[in-house]
Design a protein that fits this description.
- By secondary structure, the protein is an alpha+beta fold.
- The protein has four domains: 83 residues, Helix Hairpins; 133 residues, Ribbon (Chaperone, DNAj Protein, Chain A), CATH 2.10.230.10; 71 residues, Sandwich (HSP40/DNAj peptide-binding domain); 41 residues, no CATH class.
- The protein is built from nine helices and 15 strands.
- Helix 2 packs antiparallel against helix 3.
- The longest helix is centred in the last third of the chain and has 18 residues.
- About 9% of the residues have low confidence.
Length: 374
């Protein structure tokens, strides 16, 4: 009987990511695992089929070989590289996949320190031009007394539980499982004389001060990774990473939309009616903007390359200026008199040609009432 396509077995597309593969395998495991289907030979066969598919597709070299040659890539003792490499240690797969489902345990070796998240608020200018910020984060840092080893005298002993392997193996039904040694935490070593300052953990609570360089062009929601700046690992194991999530505060003038900027520019009635050249702000300083005569509220002007240089493309966006015609306030008696005289010139049907929007509105109202009364 010919084997089914591995992608079909897991129910994923051929371009599925590693995370997609893992999720698909977990679903398969939850459904067909023998512990959940005791005595069901069909379920056990399906489980083995899923396991075999995941073994191949989760390994980059094997997946490439399978994509190129199909099942033939692993016949006659061929491995992923075509040189008899064989399959991986099954303990690795069970440690990675079933650790969170059936309690099989952690991956091989001492666990690294935890990753840390930090939310950094930036002004629009800092996000656009870049900045260097000083932050303080409470974390577990390497113990200075023992240099992170956890040992007061620097001496360690081979763990008597796992005999230095860092892993213990146990039987679960027909499967052999392995997990990090609970006695030494996967290190393979124990500490006979623990450091008094960190109680043998190799790390202590501390507030750490860091300088974070923000690249120019970051946007709201971007994430910056600082490798090795997370929590120190237990007893000298590798540290985690620090992830800085960017939050950009609202700006009093500009609104950002991707690489473009938008702003509203107030103009006086006379400027809009007669036309004018005004100064408008940009992130690089003021520039001139010509307002044509008879411009209406909402008219949009595009200033090319006056937006943001993206941290990804480095091509600048544009600045869009939307004019808003303002109604004058706090009028002097002279100004009020002039406006009254000006308004008095808009009489009769001829006045409609000076107010295009009002004319359209009045025509719409007339059509509405005609339809209502017909």
């Amino acid at each position: 009987m010919s084997k089914r396509d591995y992608y079909e077995v897991l129910g994923v597309a051929r371009d599925a990511s590693e995370e997609d593969l893992k999720k698909a395998y977990r679903r398969c495991a939850m459904k067909f695992h023998p512990d959940r289907n005791p005595g069901d030979a069909a379920a056990e066969a399906s489980f083995k089929e899923c396991k075999e598919a995941y073994e191949v597709l989760s390994d980059g070299n094997r997946r490439r070989a399978y994509d190129q040659h199909g099942h033939a890539a692993f016949e006659h003792g061929m491995g992923a590289d075509g040189a008899g490499a064989g399959y991986a240690d099954m303990g690795d797969i069970f440690g990675d996949i079933f650790g969170n489902i059936f309690g099989a345990g952690a991956a091989r070796g001492p666990r690294r320190g935890a990753d840390i998240g930090y939310v950094m608020e930036l002004s629009l200018e800092e996000a656009v031009f870049g900045a260097e910020k000083t932050i303080e984060i409470p974390t577990l840092d390497e113990c200075e007394t023992c240099d992170g080893s956890g040992s007061a005298d620097g001496k360690t002993e081979t763990c008597q539980t796992c005999h230095g392997r860092g892993q213990v193996r146990f039987q679960r039904g027909i499967f052999s499982m392995q997990q990090a040694c609970p006695h030494c935490g996967g290190r393979g070593k124990t500490i006979p004389n623990p450091c008094a300052d960190c109680n043998g953990q190799g790390r202590v609570e501390r507030t750490k001060t860091l300088q974070v360089k923000i690249p120019a062009g970051v946007d709201n929601g971007d994430r910056i990774r600082l490798a090795g700046e997370g929590e120190a690992g237990p007893a000298g194991s590798p540290p985690g990473d620090l992830y800085v999530d960017v939050r950009v505060r609202e700006h009093e003038i500009f609104q950002r939309d991707g690489d473009d900027l938008h702003c509203e520019v107030p103009v006086r009635i006379a400027q809009a009616a007669l036309g004018d050249t005004i100064r408008v702000p940009t992130l690089d300083g003021d520039v001139e903007l010509r307002i044509p005569a008879e411009s209406q509220t909402g008219k949009l002007f595009r200033l090319r390359d006056r937006g943001v240089k993206s941290v990804r493309s480095r091509k600048p966006g544009d600045l869009y200026c939307r004019i808003v015609v303002e109604t004058p306030v706090n009028l002097t008696p002279e100004q009020r008199e002039l406006l009254e005289k000006f308004e008095a010139t808009f009489v009769g049907e001829g006045a409609r040609r000076h107010s295009p929007r009002a004319s359209t509105f009045l025509d719409g109202v007339k059509g509405f009432w005609d339809r209502m009364t017909s």
